[in-house]
Amino acid sequence: MKTLVLAVLNLLLLLTLPAAAFGQQSLISDPEIYEKKHFQAQCKAAEFADGFVIRQDINNDGLIDAVVNEGELTCDGQKGPQCNDDGCTYNFYLQVAEGGYFMIATAQIYGYDFVQRFGNMVLAMKMHPRFCDRTEGDPCIVTARVRGTKFVTISKK
Q: Secretion signal: which residues (predicted)?
């Protein structure tokens, strides 16, 4: 009987834990404060340029979202310590109507432009040429639209 009870408890744990693992991430009040605290804890001296956080509506819902460019961080005298040949880390946060933000994507890119295509604002991200199946040359331009909480690639060139 004791074995049966343990087996049932284990089965219940297996059924409930995956649901908890896929649960919604916690909202943060402000990505700028969140990211700056993170780097102030990581670096002895952290400096943030004006372009560290750009606030704009990236998913066309009328709410102002945030994009963090880690290339605009100077950590212990090193500018953009996570930057490499693939570019710098950019973190994309969406604001929700209930208040707060959540991160929807992290990308290693050279930069991006926010442009209008077919009536919608889209991100034209400059990336390493290998993302367009090239080994060299001009950066690849990956155009993506944010639909709901996902980046949807429109084109690569």
A: 1-21
Q: Which residues pair with 67 in a beta bridge?
A: 54, 92
Alpha helices (runs of H) in the chain, residue ranges in sequence order: 2-21, 31-42
- Of the candidates 31, 49, 48, the one whose C-alpha atom is nearest the C-alpha of residue 106 is 31
User: Distance between terminal CA atoms of the chain?
Assistant: 65
Helix (H) or strand (E) holding 143: strand 140-147
Q: What is the pLDDT of residues 96-145, one digit of tens each?
A: 999 999 999 999 999 999 998 877 889 999 999 999 998 888 999 999 99
| pTM (predicted TM-score) | 0.81
Q: How many CB atoms lie within 10 A of CB 52?
A: 19
Q: Which two tokens stand for residue 118?
A: 């077919």
CB atoms within 10 A of CB 48: 18
Q: Residues with Cβ < 8 Å from 86, sequence gap 6 or more?
A: 108, 109, 127, 128
Q: Give pLDDT tens digits for 17-66.
A: 333 333 457 899 999 999 999 999 999 999 999 999 999 999 989 999 99
**Residue 128 DSSP symbol:** -
Q: Which two tokens stand for residue 40?
A: 């102030």
